[in-house]
Write a structure and sequence with these properties.
Length: 422
């Protein structure tokens, strides 16, 4: 498989030679090992028993192996995290350690690594990283107040739908047919239920209950549905529902495996807005997982099916398009040292799909609309937010499935999803 350069590689090029220890984290199959392996001279693969035995027998390998040193799947021997932390405290050279893996197994006592080990999240591939289109609109430039918006794409709705089901996981995308991709995603989900949960310290007595909850969570994508609603959707017509603590365990374990990627609610420190909701917006790490859990392929999405699966009662294409755009915005924002939120007031009268807040407090607001030609109604929440925030809102845009990027006379940018980049 030919390595596809990730946007995170730019940040690693800039920072890794100067940081003593970097941890790349994210869900299985997202490409952490491939990204890290290109940057090191030595590797300890702790998912291999032979390397675990080597390190247990001679922990000094952390200092003696040629650096940079990759410690892959570090959670298979959590003690190594603390050993790396101590090595950093003792003056390890810059650029010495790269660690990859998921969170520590349940019950493991591991120091946070704060101040010693810098964590960077690797998400599934954005449209830019997939080579979908050459972007012409930069999120970083928007945060900096640059106003030029232009560009044209030939991509249409069917192309976005194809990318929703194709997955941003490199190994899945590498499969040559759509059927093989579906089988690969099925195997990925089975592995989560049957292996990843037990290995992380969460034994599953009823795998079907976990799968049902995960499917219900997928049906709540791009919504702020309460967990009680998700539980009800996972167990329809069942009087003997799983205990709330069980479903919270599902949520916590999936979050620890980086399979959930919810968008937190925006609660600015100097909040000029009243009564903002604090509920996060639900998202799985990859929209393709959502589509497969709900048994939706490209044809069914294009036909508008999926309303029976959706918790909100509408067709799933709109929420899945928002999931795809949100994935890309998360990747681009991380490159710009920005954070991504959503905004909704408690009454539901005003909501904005994505709020990107830069390191200096500048805000870019984005609405995601499944349309090629947005109208004034699609932009009303952006206009309202501009009235509330004034100059702090440095830009606002609606992300569409259209062909052209341009700026309207009211100041709102219209940006096809294919043309939005870092």
């Amino acid at each position: 498989m030919v390595y596809a350069r990730r946007i995170l590689d730019d940040l690693l090029d800039e920072t890794q030679p100067y940081l003593r220890a970097v941890s790349l984290y994210g869900p299985k199959g997202v490409g952490k090992t491939a990204t890290a392996a290109r940057r090191v001279r030595s590797t300890l693969a702790l998912d291999q028993e032979s390397d675990r035995q080597r390190l247990r027998a001679d922990p000094g390998l952390l200092q003696t192996l040629p650096g940079p040193l990759l410690i892959d799947e570090w959670q298979r021997w959590p003690e190594v995290w603390d050993r790396v932390r101590r090595a950093v405290d003792d003056g390890a050279e810059r650029g010495r350690f790269l660690l990859t893996g998921s969170s520590a197994p349940r019950g493991a006592t591991v120091h946070s690594g704060a101040g010693r080990i810098v964590g960077l999240r690797l998400r599934p591939m954005s449209l830019v990283e997939r080579g979908f289109e050459t972007p012409t609109v930069s999120l970083a430039a928007m945060l900096a107040g640059e106003t030029d918006i232009s560009g044209e794409t030939g991509r249409v709705l069917a192309d976005y739908v194809g990318e929703i089901v194709a997955s941003g996981l490199p190994a899945v995308r590498d499969e040559p047919t759509t059927r093989l991709r579906r089988l690969a995603i099925d195997g990925y989900i089975d592995n989560i239920v049957q292996r990843e949960f037990p290995e992380a310290g969460y034994p599953v007595r009823r795998p079907e209950a976990l799968r049902a909850w995960l499917t219900a969570y997928a049906a709540a994508s791009s919504s702020t549905a309460k967990y009680s609603v998700i539980l009800d959707a996972a167990t329809p017509n069942e009087g003997n529902k799983p205990a709330k603590v069980t479903t919270l365990t599902f949520r916590d374990a999936l979050a620890g495996l980086w399979l959930l990627d919810p968008t937190p609610a925006w609660l600015p420190a100097d909040n000029p807005l009243a009564r903002l909701s604090q509920a996060a917006k639900h998202q799985l790490a990859d929209p393709a997982l959502t589509a497969r859990l709900l048994n939706l392929d490209a044809a069914s999405l294009m036909a508008g099916r999926g309303s029976r699966a959706a918790i909100h009662g509408g067709a799933m294409l709109g929420p899945l398009f928002e999931s795809l755009v949100t994935l890309g915005v998360q990747v681009f924002a991380a490159a710009a040292e920005a954070r991504v939120f959503h905004m909704r007031d408690r009454d539901g009268r005003h909501e904005v799909d994505l709020i990107v807040e830069g390191p200096g407090g500048a805000v870019v607001a984005l609405e995601v609309k499944l349309t090629a030609t947005p109208d004034d109604g699609d932009l009303r929440h952006l206009v309202w937010l501009k009235q509330q925030l004034g100059d702090r809102l440095v830009d606002m845009a609606v992300v569409t499935t259209g062909r052209h990027a341009y700026r309207r006379s009211d100041g709102v940018a219209v940006v096809p999803a294919a043309l939005l980049g870092p």
